Amino acid sequence: MIITVEARGLRLLLVSVVVGLVFAGSAIRMVAQITTAGIVGVVSDQSGSTIPGATVTATGESTGFKRSFITGGDGRFSLSDLPLGSYTLTAEKAGFRTYEHLGFGPLDAGQVARLDIAMVVGSPQESVKVTGAAPLLQTESDVIRTPILQDQIDSLPLNSRSPIELLLQQPGAQVSQQYQQGGGSYLGFNFNGQNANGNNFNVDGTDASVVADNTITIASGNLVMASVDSIAEFDTGSQNYSAEVKGSGGYVNLITKSGSNKLHGDGFEFLRNSVLDAKSYFATQREQLRLNDFGGTITGPIRRDKTFFMGSWEGQRIRRPTTVDLTVPTAAFRATVDPRFDEPLKYTPLPTASIPGDPDVGTFISSPSAAIRQDLVTGRVDQILSEKDTFFGRYTINSLNDLEVSPFIDFSSKIRVRHQYLTLSETHVFSPTLLNSVKFGVDRYDEQGKNGRQNASDFGLDGFSVPGINIAGGENSIEFAHTAAQLVDSVTWIKGRHSLKFGGSYWGAIMGRVQFQSYAWTFQTDQAFAMDKPQSAFSYFGPGKTLPGNHYSDTQQSLYGQDDFRATRNLTINIGLRYDNFGLMKESRNRTENVVDNPLGPFRAAGQPMYRRNNLDFAPRFGFS
Questions:
Q1: In this predicted structure, what is the pLDDT of residue 188?
Q2: Predicted pLDDT at 182
Q3: Which end of the chain, N or C, is surrounded by fewer C-beta atoms within 10 Å?
């Protein structure tokens, strides 16, 4: 009997993979797309005998959303793809009192909570009511997750107001990179010692990372993905994934709030300045930091029990001066310098103090400032189209302007970033045992940076390296953009004691970069500089000082099948198979070179792929709980 059950389970798994091929056609970055939950259990009478034909209904307490299931011969029910939140569960069957459980939850993303229902013989007009949340045991899956729910998010102190700091609550997560730029900061993470490039970041089930480095960072900015006050759940995991999830590192799935039948709103402002700060141990005075973080979130109904909205805005303004101590040429030394260097010396300030015994140089002390303006806006609409169809759409735009004034005359560094991402999702219920969910996501990132004279018609002043002297120059700029689109489809099929899920997605991206870097001249001594006798000259991008525009394209696909088989009342077996095809990145103008076969081999010829494709990325999954 056991052998028959296992063979049947394998057959169903193979069927799920084949059907997944038909339904999905394929994809990558299929990470942590789980944004819903489920409830399973058995309906029985007071003697413990199972009750077939009972109708079990879950009703969302904040939105009125409903989903029903009719129990089979074994009395089992499975309510899948439920939006997050608390539910009222009812069970109805002729000859039995109506069972009603209030306040079951709240459910978090990916959770499959179990509730066994015992019905009492009587009239359906009579009811048995249970109030209060039942223990939400995770008995249907071996996945190890660390969801951070809304009440935790609201109460945890986040210094930068970046939700990524919540990763520090995840077991196995550790900081791999940390630096500060201007008034912003950056934290890089890895999970269980894995490469950080294996991490995946999603918002509402679709990819929201920057393709170039597979992160969700914003240059110089703190606010990423979504405002902390707009987050319903911050879901992370680092091991024992189901086949639906891809990645060798960890995943982050941020789920935004949805509206409800009640109007809610909040506003906030966080302030940091020098009045409230202490000076560092070695400093002579307190740092003159000014940080204002403010915004608000509003949720509510557009049409009761049908249409709901959420809107969120968070702004951050940071002003931070820094003390700079330069060693610059004196007027006497400048008079001896070759006239061809008049331009860089024109933008180099004169000393404010002399250095005893050295007539050629002096010190210049200034306090240039960095100013960051960042605004993060999110809007979401949820629509219950019918008892069988639900839809939501969410759009986020993150804009940043960073200005850092240089101690050199008319020099500054400017960065402008705009990051936008959109998610559309529709779920259709074909029957209580078969439903389909499809998601579409678009991610657009634009960054422009310029370091030097912002309005100079002759932008491109070279850089000069002279021992013991600081000289203006080294102007550079960059423009980078990427656009990625993702289509995800998943099918859930309840077949007896098998809960099957299969599907896949398609991901494609285009990227472009243009970069300028002036020459770098090196002189052995200040006298060599004065006589224009460089030791060496270096150009990053050749005589033209410009990296010609590179245009990359990439497509990636995945398929998966997963079977959660309830072998006994106390044992669930999780088995799955995943396939990823990472495609080949292409450069449309043949301007990128790479060693294809080995480090000592020749560079690829124009038109050849930059690396070899691996078509054998299969990932089997097995677990039990």
A1: 66
A2: 45
A3: N
Q: What is the DSSP string of 213-275?
A: TTB---TT-S--SS-GGGEEEEEEEEES--TT---SS-EEEEEE----SS-EEEEEEEEEETT
pLDDT < 70 stretches in the chain: 1-34, 132-146, 176-188, 196-197, 210-221, 238-240, 247-249, 280-284, 590-599, 603-610
Tokens of 325: 């101590």
> Could you tell me the CA-to-CA distances from 530 to 337, 363, 525 in Å, in that order?
4, 19, 9
pTM flag (> 0.90)? no
Report the amino acid identity of residue 307: T
Q: Yes or no: say if 593 and 603 are a contact pair by the CB < 8 Å rule.
A: yes
Q: Angle at Cα 254 formed by Cα 251 and Cα 259, nearest 5°?
A: 160
Residue 194: per-residue pLDDT: 74
DSSP letters for 95-150: TBPEEEEEEEEEE-TT-EEE--EEE-BS-TTSEEEE-SPPP--B-S---EE--EEH
Q: Report whether 82 contacts 36 (CB < 8 A).
A: yes
Burial class (CB in 10 A: 0-12, 13-18, 19+), 7: exposed
- Residue 605 region, left (φ>0) first, then alpha (ψ -120 to 50), else beta? beta
Residue 151 has phi, psi (to 5 degrees) of -65, -35
Distance CA 442, CA 422 (A): 5
Q: What angle do CA 225, 228, 229 make, to 5 degrees?
A: 125
Which residues does 570 contact at the CB level (< 8 Å), separation at least 6?
139
Residues 262, 353: contact at Cβ < 8 Å?
Answer: no
| C-alpha span between 330 and 336 (Å, rounded) | 10
> Tell me, what's the pLDDT at 3?
30
